[in-house]
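Entry for the shared binder. Reason: the reviewer on the internal report wants the predicted structure included alongside the sequence.
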Amino acid sequence: MRILQLHSNFIEYTPIKKEVTIAEETQKKPTRLDDIVVLFTCIEEGDNESVAKQAIDEVKEALQQLKAKKILIYPYAHLSSNLAKPTAALNILKTMEKHAKAVGIETYRSPFGWNKQFTISIKGHPLAEQSKVIVPKGEAKEERKVRKWKIPKPEYSILKLDAETSDPKEYKFKEGEEDIKTLVEKEVFKKEAPGGEPRIIAILNRFGFEWEKSSDSGHMRYGPKAALMVELAGDYAWQSVNELGIPSFYIKGTNLFNLNVPAIKAHADLFGERLYTIRVDNEEFILKYAACFQQFSMLKDWMISYKHIPFGMLEIADSYRLEQSGETLLGFRLRRFYMPDYHVFCRDLEHAKEMTLKVHKKIHEKARELGNQYVSLYNLTKSFFEKNREFMRELVKVDRKPALLHFVPEGKYYWVINVEYHITDELKRSREIATVQIDVGNAKRFGIKYVNEKREEAYPPILHTAVLGGIERYLYTVFDAALKKEVPSLPLWLSPAQVRIIPISDKFTRDAEKIADIMERQCIRVDVDDRPFTMQKKVREAEVEWISYVLVIGQREIDSGVLSVRDRELRKLRKMRLERLISEIRKKTAGMPFQSLTLPRELSKRPQF
């Protein structure tokens, strides 16, 4: 702490403009104090309540020498570059004020967080101007307080298809329930997962999903093929939420939110300690870990009627979570990722349950269309479970297999139920991909209201979900499902190149380009391998890249109009005309998002990467 102590004839100050979000409320009018010791006070990082009291005790001794009776504590940040956080600084200034009054000093304090105009007249004696540096004793350090809970011993049950429960220790798993068994062994019995790196990592690298070594741990980069898949998955996330039939809004916003905003801080405290924080202009901000902040900040300014409910809002949020570096996994557990965060705003809890069931069905549908399947982990309180057994029966009926119940303490979370959707990867490890939860706390916290049929203000329950899961986790699921096939392949709409044309010599390159032009006009991603390599090498590389259709073009194909098509899915060579191939591809990709190639069509124009 640094203090410039001035024994003054008078000081007169006027608040002009707020400088920080937590600036104290005050009137913009002059205040004058006569015959007073002014303490221009700068609170530094590491200062604490002990320092505040120590500073006042020293000032009290100085007042006896000066024969002065009153002080003005005047916040003044210009004495140091090592400033404390605004919330900490304000608390310490208040502690100084309280302690000064407690020891009998007539005390005044100018408002915190304001740019102020002031005039001061300093007495002309030798002790009128003094500076003080108060050093904290020991290494005490102010830290952001995170809400702590006494964590009871976890309590689990198996939820059967009839909504009855069973002790996991006694449950006998049946054939076809291997995935739920894997989840139970991980969550309940803490069984170690098999070691080793899954094949999926090498495949992700092959498609351009890589760690960015020049960044923080857990940050990825996306080559041209990977970037295309990310964009397509984002489009599909928006398409998928619109399939729910709920009127929805697509938005975008900032990544940076001020921790001094009470609602932001309260939500961050509930999230825990996995926060990226940054200091800007003496204020502390967090990088958002989901889209809640931007959507909720926007919605509190909307005029919402019961006639508008239900409605949804989606942002593909650039999200940051400070995962432990040793736990990061390419494409799955990341510190920075894309989250297609979707919120549904409901009338009341019963309506929220109805919307949850609809979302629950859609989440399972999206996994099953890949040939994968989810098992569910339901985090909820016992009271919610007992009151909503029929609702739980409906949910587990969609699961088509038993689920795992995890009972949490009453009142601990802002949600009443949180469903996690897990796959079992090729190494028999359970991986959480998607979630949905019913939030009954954040509407009030953020001031999101709607006017109900009685013309009364009400707070809507909010569904939080990512129907596909995070974009990277969704793609992880896509590749996981592909690797479980006899011949690995991607959904055609997601394949970076759907068709590759290979001319048997340079003589037929122009013909290959003409065919590619026709296919591109039909919204088909096609490339041409015009490199001076052998036919065998070109075909082999197309296989490695999982190209769905490979066309070999030579004189016979040009003369007959019948193409030689290597079909990866059917694992055979087919003879077909171009029109038929186009029709087949269009049929397979109907209704799915499309984007053009994100790299040159001709392979000869691509650097090796």
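Summary line for the report: The longest helix spans residues 349-368.
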